[in-house]
Amino acid sequence: MSHEGKLAIITGAGRNIGEAIAHRLAEEGASIAVVDLDQGRADKVVEDLIKKGVSAASFVCDVSKPEQILNVVDAIQHEFKRIDILVNNVAISDNKNILDIDLTTWQKTLDITLTAPFYFAKCVAHKMVDQGIPGNIVNVSSTTGYFGRGRAIAYAAAKGGVVNLTKAMAIQLAEYNIRVNSVVPNKIGSPVGKDEFDPSRPIINLRNRAGAPSDLANAVAFLVSDQSDFIVGTDLFVDGGCSVIMPGGSG
Ligand SMILES: NC(=O)c1ccc[n+]([C@@H]2O[C@H](COP(=O)([O-])OP(=O)(O)OC[C@H]3O[C@@H](n4cnc5c(N)ncnc54)[C@H](O)[C@@H]3O)[C@@H](O)[C@H]2O)c1
Fold first, then answer.
1. Does 208 map to a domain?
2. Contact call for residues 141 and 130 (beta carbons, < 8 A)
3. Using one digit for the tens of pLDDT, what is the confidence trace for 5-37?
4. What is the model's pTM?
5. Chain-wide mean pLDDT for the chain?
6. Based on the structure, what is the number of domains in the chain?
7. Quick one: which atom of ligand 1 is closest to the CA of 188?
8. Catalytically annotated residues
9. Cβ atoms 63, 37 nearer than 8 A
10. Which residue lies with its CA nearest to atom 44 of ligand 1?
11. Of 31, 115, 207, 247, which one's alpha carbon is 20 to 30 angstroms from that of 62?
12. What is the CATH number of the domain that holds 124?
């Protein structure tokens, strides 16, 4: 197991994609810090991990509050004595049109979806640098970071920011042996902010199936492993190939 003795933080690990990433990295031997706003969800994931013999703990944190991020990173460092992996997974969508969205919703979406990954990475990178620990950071982006979207405006802007944040972080942290990459999902499991799979979501990709949280978890596991040692600042699309299809289809 490649992550024996290592500690992985996964934000928004209370359900769906984050939960799957937590279980996948645990299978590789990592101890897991489950960070989520929802204590019940976080505790349930930790309970399931502990039942599998994994070392895990839950940390309640509203990532829209920088002081809470700072405190939670300190608490994780205190409990596990090291941080090797950060997966910046939390995001919310505004689901608004530019004509309808108000500034409060815009700001909240950017705070959680763009500023939080930046600040979480900053706090974690300081710990890695101070301890001389070679680290891995993966930002969960979205195909919406590359394309416009009718159903969200702030989310699209924030995810576009995550795409370039990843590249800048990769350059700035490279000298400290911290690799930064992103994964780029499209329609994985249930929609962002929802608990239920939505069978009415159209599936337009080259695999003719909806993506599963495990598809994303496998990609993250690869990016934080030594097998991807020469991959830095990359956006790994996990979208069934949907983003290579021209409007009008693939024929
Ligand atoms: N689900 C998809 O189809 C899809 C597609 C593209 C990209 N993504 C990306 O994948 C990631 C995960 O998506 P998901 O669908 O699993 O999300 P989700 O909404 O199902 O889960 C998000 C988790 O984050 C937690 N959370 C929400 N706000 C928080 C806050 N302020 N502080 C701390 N925790 C908070 C929630 O409690 C929840 O457990 C996101 O970055 C999303 O943009 C998802």
1. yes
2. no
3. 999 999 999 999 999 999 999 999 999 999 999
4. 0.98
5. 96
6. 1
7. 3
8. 155
9. yes
10. 192
11. 31
12. 3.40.50.720
